[in-house]
Design brief:
It catalyses: glycine + O2 + H2O = glyoxylate + H2O2 + NH4(+). This is glycine oxidase. The protein is of the alpha/beta class. Helices cover 33% and strands 24% of the residues. The protein is built from 9 helices and 16 strands. Helix 2 crosses helix 8. It is globular and about 60 Å long.
Length: 359
Amino acid sequence: MSADIAVVGGGVVGSAIAWRLAQAGAAVTVYDDTAAGRASTVAAGMLAPASEAQLDNPHLLRLSIAAARRWPQFAADLADQAEQTDPDDHIGYRACGTLLVAMSAADQADIDRYRDLYQREGIEIQRWDGERCRTVEPLLSHRVNAGLFAPGDHQVDPRRTLAALIRAGAAAGVRRVAEPVTNLSELKAGRVVLAAGTWSGRLAEFPIRPVHGQVLRLHAPAGDANHIGRSIRAVNRGRSVYLVPRSNGEVVVGASSHELGFDTAARVGDTVTLLRDAVDVVPELTEYRLIETNVGLRPGTPDNAPLLGPIGDGRVVVATGHFRNGILLAPITADLITRYLTTGAEPVELRTFNAERFA
């Protein structure tokens, strides 16, 4: 294939699309102005179709399950391109599962809704009592009442993944231009992929709204060998908080969710709430250092599912609106958009998540 394609947006989704298109033989240019609030560099990187499931959208759940199944090969392909043998060392890809815990009997009713959904969709899930949860994760609070373990939920470091995708794209011939795009019609490329996340709504008439999400990054004290072993999502007094550990002792804690326009300022109240809920789940976090407070703007749609596929006369192809699931859905989004642009065949997923469904 020889084609001139512009990808607008250089986050994980846009960079994954550019890499896969270049591998297929396309001449690709990525336009990226590295705007503040990019969700890719703030996200925790939970690859969690189970514990992150959207209970009222079965189509999105099934897309998420399919995406999670592609991640092992996607991570291996990135590692191979860089001549790395371990995807964990390369992009922080860890097949460690997620533990969803309830802090009280009332919270347990919330996680039981997920168990029923998992069973219907054929997702492997294990029900643990509080004692079993603490045996596997000794740092958990004595207040943990019960848990669900989803071994098929994995994690990745989005920052390392984005850096790896940029390198892989460059090796495959992708050009990157560090400038903003204000009008898609001014791009000279034959085809345009719009993957600008929250900012996509400024370039085309989509109902995309920025959803403010605040995340904290903590780090274990020097010499502390007792770390959380897997991602933990807790329901605590009806609120949800997640803890995503890295192999270097970092723990990502998140996340708030507010609709505040394009404001990327961190808020004291969100910091306090996240820390309080995290310490309730793992009391030892009081000894950790708070090293970062970050805000990302998630691209939300009316149904919080992505917008995928061609619009208008077909010159522009959309890959945006992934909301909380951009990292998880990046590999399958890249494959679907690449298949469409290289073959002309429209995968069923592009019809399901039609970019013009809210027109």
